[in-house]
Amino acid sequence: MRNTAFTLTALLALHSPPLAAQASCSSDGAARPVALFERFISADCEACWSDRATPAPSASALVLDWIVPGVLGDDAPLSAAASTDALQRLQTLGRQAPTSTDVFTAPVEGAPSARLRVAHGMAFNDYLGTSIAFTPARAAPGRTAAATDWRFFLLVVEAVPAGTEGTPVARKMVRNMVHGTAASIPKCNTEN
Fold first, then answer.
1. What is the spatial distance between Cα 135 and Cα 113, in angstroms, rounded to a whole number?
2. Whether the Cβ atoms of residue 69 and residue 97 lie closer than 8 Å to each other
3. What is this structure's pTM?
4. H runs (alpha helix) in 61-157
5. 175-185 pLDDT, tens digit each
6. Residue 24, SS3?
């Protein structure tokens, strides 16, 4: 049975060139951004999406675009892309939902010796498996950090090139967010 499953998997891979050509992707070797630049756009403000004067960061910043649900609800021009995750992010930042566009910038902080690795595999039936690995910097002698002190946010982001979908600037649209604490992650048994 095990050989049959392996053979079927190998045959499917050979007969599905687009699937065989895809590989996993990780943050290995990626330059660390020096700043986080977030644009929050009200779903009520279609002109904000197509504004040629859209605020832009320096090249070394990580840019995220959030569409915030507006007062028009489902009748808002950008309601199809609006996410309640944007409201949660604004609440975390202590900011109100904008009526047009709001920008938040912050330096990327963290110990230089800490390591963060994010990876994903091939998409399968509209699902995408991801992994996050974090190795904290060594604590100073006599000081330890509890594992529960660490929080994570994993964002599903869609790249929207400039000149498409009515936007004059390239965007990284946040489509979904998963978050938690280190304590909420189940520990995997790696023993055989």
1. 9
2. yes
3. 0.72
4. 84-93
5. 988 877 766 66
6. coil
CB 149 within 8 A of CB 179: no
Residue 37 is encoded by which pair of tokens?
Answer: 């630049």
Rounded to the nearest angstrom, the gap between the alpha carbon of residue 69 and the centroid of all alpha carbons in its chain is 19
User: Among residues 33, 76, 38, which one has the least CA distance to residue 54?
Assistant: 38
3-state secondary structure of 42: strand
- 47 backbone dihedrals φ, ψ, rounded to 5°: -65, -30
The band of 188, judged by pLDDT with boundaries at 50, 70 and 90, is: low
CA–CA separation, 118 and 133 (whole Å): 7
Count CB-CB contacts under 10 A for residue 43: 26
Residue 24 has which token pair? Answer: 């996993």
Task: Calculate the alpha carbon distances from 62 to 78, 100, 123 in Å.
Answer: 23, 21, 24
Q: How far apart are CA 120 and CA 66, in angstroms?
A: 22
> Going along the chain, which residue ranges are E strands?
25-26, 35-42, 61-68, 101-107, 115-124, 127-135, 151-160, 171-181
Confidence of residue 123 (pLDDT cuts 50, 70, 90): confident
Rounded to 5°, the CA angle 139-141-145 comes to 35
